[in-house]
Specification:
Number of helices: 9
Structural class: alpha+beta
Strand order of the largest sheet: 1-2-5-4-6-7-3-12-13-16-17
Largest sheet: 11 strands, mixed
Number of strands: 26
Radius of gyration: 22 Å
Length: 429
């Protein structure tokens, strides 16, 4: 009798169910008893088309047996059985919620599901719907709190990958090809935004792109970076994936690349403004004119990595100057056309996108407009310098630092606690 009761109970608790509401549709698979585990964090960036199974296994492992939440603005339940039972990684449940419109963000049911998730995955589709529906809403707040406070793993494919960076191509006016973007970087389809959205700290200064091989999107990615550099003054970088390829980033900043090389030519790309070039800005980036970002054929430094079945190849997102299994290239744009040359490893202090510190305090938000908040309880001396090293601000601080007097751009913040100093790149919007 006890064995029979247990079996019946298990059958009762493990099920699939669909819920339709005017604002959303839910597809649920797994245990109805929500559990709390300790997720391992991280970010999974998928280049589109079919998911890489091993990268998705990594994603599920980071959830540590918890509950998986898939968010999408179109489609149905294609992820449920795939994630719950086909990859061989045990999780408590998988739920897909399809937003039927922007009003879905007001649903308490969705809020509760975010609060209970150990992993959140954004499906493909149209990234403008994600931006338009979710940004600056309670759902947005809850997702960011889940990342920062509960260390959930997050990721997405195609449009879901496009929204993972601190900067993102919104596709508000539709998609844009490389040829169109490079012929006119200010075409109305080139819509790049840096307003706070998904706050993955290690991707603060990164803009992602996907479907890098089909169609070729390298040129437009360079255009996105040129616009960010000029308009935000940010030390911008890029991460991109071919289709069927994924970049999985753990909490140490190690970015592993999954794919099916050598059977298929699957690649990920890590792009940064070449720090070997002094005052590296586009020569021409103006409305109605072809992009010219040449800098002696070396404007952009790129580390290209083959994605393998086991994810052996990688790149260090702490330093942005070292990797395993990749090849360095110089990219540049001349007369609206992209060129690539094989190169050598970067030879200067490259741009780090993570705010690295040995201190037991954090700074936030970054970028900001007026105030930087410090999680420190002690009095610190703050010195702000521009990128040339010229001091522009110095004061004693503890809880916050007012930078409203500074011009828009990127600065170096140095904090002194009496024993040590700590450096951070900050961006004034």
């Amino acid at each position: 009798m006890n064995k029979l009761f247990t079996s019946l109970f298990t059958i009762q608790m493990l099920f699939s169910v669909n819920i339709f509401c005017q604002n959303y549709t839910s597809y649920f698979t797994g245990s109805s008893n929500n559990i709390s585990t300790s997720p391992l964090g991280g970010i999974c960036l998928m280049g589109g088309s079919t998911e890489d199974d091993n990268a998705m296994r990594w994603f599920l492992e980071q959830a540590n047996g918890g509950d998986i939440l898939v968010l999408r603005t179109s489609g149905s339940d294609g992820y449920n059985e795939y994630l719950y039972s086909q990859l061989g990684i045990s999780v408590n449940s998988v739920e897909t919620i399809v937003f039927n419109g922007s009003s879905a963000v007001n649903e308490n049911y969705i809020h509760e599901k975010i609060l209970g998730a150990e992993a959140i995955w954004f499906a493909g589709g149209n990234q403008w719907n994600y931006v338009n529906y979710i940004r600056d809403t309670e759902v947005n707040i809850l997702i960011n709190e889940a990342i920062s406070e509960r260390n959930i793993v997050i990721g997405g494919t195609s449009a879901g990958m496009a929204i993972m960076g601190g900067y993102y191509f919104t596709a508000q006016n539709g998609t844009v090809t490389s040829d169109v973007a490079m012929s006119n970087p200010f075409d109305n389809r080139v819509q790049v935004d840096g307003d706070p959205f998904l706050q993955n700290e290690i991707l603060t200064n990164v803009i992602t792109d996907q479907h890098y091989d089909d169609p070729d999107r390298k040129g437009r990615h360079i255009v996105f970076m040129s616009r960010i550099l000029l308009e935000y003054g940010a030390p911008v970088a890029g991460i991109a994936c071919d289709e069927y390829t994924a970049v999985c980033i753990d909490n140490t900043g190690n970015a592993r690349v999954f794919g099916e090389y050598p059977d298929y030519d699957d690649n990920a790309y890590f792009l940064q403004v070449n720090c070997e070039v002094a005052e590296n800005y586009p020569e021409t980036c103006s409305p109605g004119q072809e992009l010219e970002w040449n800098q002696n054929n070396s404007a952009i430094k790129v580390y290209q990595v083959k994605g393998t079945y086991e994810g052996e190849n990688s790149f260090d997102l702490n330093s942005w100057d070292s990797g395993i299994g990749g090849v360095w290239h110089d990219w540049y744009v001349s007369n609206g056309e992209l060129f690539e040359n094989q190169s050598t490893e970067i030879q200067c202090q490259s741009m780090s996108t993570v705010q690295v510190t040995n201190a037991d305090f954090a700074i936030y938000p970054n970028p900001t407009t007026d105030l930087i908040y410090l999680s420190s309880e002690i009095l610190l001396e703050a010195v702000i310098s521009d990128l040339s090293g010229k001091e522009v601000l110095r004061r004693k601080v503890s809880k916050n630092l007012n930078i409203s007097s500074l011009e828009k751009g990127t600065y170096i913040l140095t904090l002194f606690d009496g024993l040590s100093s700590y450096n951070h790149n900050i961006i004034k919007k």
